[in-house]
Design goal:
single chain, seven-stranded mixed beta sheet, four-stranded antiparallel beta sheet, 3 helices, 11 strands, 20% helix, 39% strand, globular
């Protein structure tokens, strides 16, 4: 009976991963170089609905290792939250008021590229708890934008880390 229930739960979880708005790992092979790339099926887009010119996208860079695919660093593209970026900070607020923070490690740039390292402990929080708000604060100008995550995206990271943990990869042709 336990095996049957477990099978049903895994089947339901896999079905959820492959819904149109769900998040899974995409695999794409460059036919010219034979290099294989892994990335989330979609990014989490956080846009100010009033200004439209302010917001950011969030996703994890995914690496292939001997163990399989693994999440690496957090990659963001920030627009309209200061013109140049240096030591930016991102804060994730979970439903239970737990917070995950990351600080930009890459060099000063005016392209909006923000890379943050996230600890394994923080990845575990993102993998198990729904995100309700995300704030990006520019470390240079201290401007910030806080995005309230819509219901359909609150489990974005839960779905992504489930796909990574279970090595659920969907090839792109």
């Amino acid at each position: 009976m336990k095996k049957t229930m477990l099978s049903i739960m895994v089947f339901m979880a896999l079905g959820a991963v492959y819904q149109n708005d769900s998040v899974y790992v995409s695999e794409q092979k460059d036919e010219m170089t034979d290099k294989v790339y892994y990335y989330a099926s979609r990014q989490l887009l956080c846009q100010n609905q009033e200004l439209k010119s302010q917001g950011f996208s969030v996703c994890f860079f995914i690496n292939k290792t001997k163990k399989g695919i693994e999440s690496a660093e957090l990659k963001m593209k920030v627009i309209g939250v200061g013109s140049c970026h240096e030591k930016d900070e991102v804060i994730f607020l979970m439903e239970d008021e737990t917070k995950v923070k990351g600080t930009m490690w890459n060099e000063f740039n005016c392209d909006g590229k923000v890379w943050c390292k996230v600890s394994d402990q923080d990845k575990e929080i993102l993998a198990t708890k729904k995100v309700i708000k995300i704030r990006v604060q520019n470390g240079r100008t201290f401007e910030s934008y806080t995005h309230s995550v819509p219901d359909k995206d609150k489990d974005y990271f839960i779905q992504l880390f489930f796909a990574i943990k279970n090595q659920i990869i969907k090839p792109i042709k």
